[in-house]
Amino acid sequence: MRDLRIIVTTADAERLRGALVLACAQAALGGRASLFLQLDAVALLRPPIDAPLDKTHRAAGLPSLAMVLEEALALGVTMLACQSGLALCQLTADQLPPGVEIGGPVSFLQAADDQARLLLV
């Protein structure tokens, strides 16, 4: 199965939720998945992690954004927060959820082989 690599480009919680759901599905099928939160998207990891539509999702029996993030990390999805994004959002590494790594677009793309599927959300 080809690797799935997703770049989240904006601080839109629903885009992150969608990316995490796809990554969880990939991992559940036995594939490898990685997410890179670029620049402003890193702000979505500011504690406490919540999303404007969390109540709607929970009322429908679906997990909150924080729950989907936790599940993705538990399934082995790699999450990389942009180092410049941390500075931009005035966050520090110790504020990130356990398991989220710090890096940049070069390291994220270097880890992809020619067969990887790359999605931009």
Brief overview, please?
By secondary structure, the protein is an alpha/beta fold. Helix content is 36%, strand content 19%. It contains 5 helices and 5 strands.
Structural class based on helices, strands and sheet pairing:
alpha/beta
Profile the largest sheet. Answer: 5 strands, parallel
Number of strand segments: 5
Number of helices: 5
Mean of residue pLDDT?
Answer: 95
Shape label: globular
Distance between the termini: 21 Å
Order of helices and strands: EHEHHEHEHE
Please state how the strands of the largest beta sheet are arranged side by side: 4-3-2-1-5
Oligomeric nature of the chains: single chain
Round the Cα radius of gyration to an integer and report it: 14 Å
> Which spans of ≥5 residues are poorly predicted at pLDDT below 50?
none
How much helix is in the residues? 25-40%
Strand content: 15-25%
Detail the topology: elements first, then pairings.
Layout: E1 4-8, H1 13-28, E2 33-37, H2 54-59, H3 65-74, E3 78-82, H4 83-88, E4 100-103, H5 105-110, E5 117-120
Parallel strand pairs: 1-2, 1-5, 2-3, 3-4
Helix pairs in contact: 1-3
Keywords summarizing the entry:
121 residues, alpha/beta, 19% strand
Can you offer a commentary on this structure?
The chain is an alpha/beta fold. Helices cover 36% and strands 19% of the residues. The chain has helices at residues 13-28, 54-59, 65-74, 83-88, 105-110; strands at 4-8, 33-37, 78-82, 100-103, 117-120. The chain has a 5-stranded parallel β-sheet. Helix 1 (13-28) links the parallel strand 1 and strand 2 (33-37). The protein is globular and about 40 Å long. It starts with a strand and ends with a strand.
